[in-house]
Amino acid sequence: MKKINIMDVTLRDGSYAINFQFSCADVMMIGGALDKLGYNYIEIGHGMGLGASSPKNGQSLNSDEEYLKSAQRSIKNAKYGVFCIPGVASYGDIEKAASLGMKFIRIGTNVDEIKKSEPYIKIAKSYGLEVMANYMKSYALAPEKFAEQVAISQSYGADVVYIVDSAGGMLPYEIENYYNAIRKVSDIRLGFHAHNNLGLALSNSIFAASIGIEMIDCSLQGLGRSAGNASTELFTICMQKYGYDLDIDYKKLLMVSNKLVRPFVKKTGIDPIDTICGVTSFHTSYLHTIHKQSAIMGCNPLELIEEYSKIDKIGMDTEKLATISKALQVDYNSLYNLNFTNYFGNEQL
């Protein structure tokens, strides 16, 4: 039978949706349930990873150490691990996490900053960890250039490289273009991380698996940053229907998800901000800057996002943003029709 590995990210990416307020009890209950169901990879911790909890990035309810100790007590068969952004996490954070039983780590950098991951990958490998290199905002680099970076990450010692649709706007053929370009230069295992801004997280994840991508990120109820991720429940069921080797009782899965995670789900309907981010490949980490500049100039935030994303899909240049906003029509009413309150953290991935 065909094989696929699911990385459940509920307890990490899902934390964005609840302002990083998962408790140690949640880690034990949800992580333990996923473990008993038969999932092999469970990611935990603050949405931005090790060392991220702070007033600037959002204060998590418990510490990295407390979350890891909770996972250590409750997850007995699956590998559990964390996310790590160079410059946010320290080398010491990795050492401490490794001592608490984690088996994998995901090193996340913007797709044009892969060099920053080198020392982190090498240190993680020295502790015997399985290392994934996550290329945030993957779509900002052409497939051929992306593939060159993959070969570099492999030379650093990464075991897996992830194509990351941070804005949730990639289409299936684009995923295939990246896959084909990578396979011309590297045989490294690949992963895919979807967001649902255009409603494609599940279908893109299914497609990614069908073309040979070995690891797929999912979360229970699709809980995650912005419009959320591919649903663990639905992806599991679809993979089983396609004949993949997943010995998971989907009925128990549905009941666990309904009891433990569905109460955290607050967002419904189609949100204009989530959607425009998907359409334009604009990352939600800069929405607080968009909101501020739109308020100053009285312009439509959706138009400002659309215009800015034409020149930059990775970072934020406030001077260029100000120049663009001055050229837009005044539209104060648009600000009252949009809700930015969920986007004032320093979101990543």
UniProtKB/TrEMBL annotation:
A Pfam family that the UniProt record links to this protein: HMGL-like
GO BP annotations listed: L-leucine biosynthetic process
UniProt name for this protein: 4-hydroxy 2-oxovalerate aldolase
PANTHER family in UniProt: 2-ISOPROPYLMALATE SYNTHASE 1, CHLOROPLASTIC-RELATED, HOMOCITRATE SYNTHASE-RELATED
Entry keyword annotation includes Membrane: no
Native species: Anaerosporobacter mobilis DSM 15930
Ranges of residues in domain Pyruvate carboxyltransferase: 4-254
Keywords: Manganese
Superkingdom to which the source organism belongs: Bacteria
SUPFAM superfamilies for the chain: Aldolase
GO MF terms held by the record: 2-isopropylmalate synthase activity
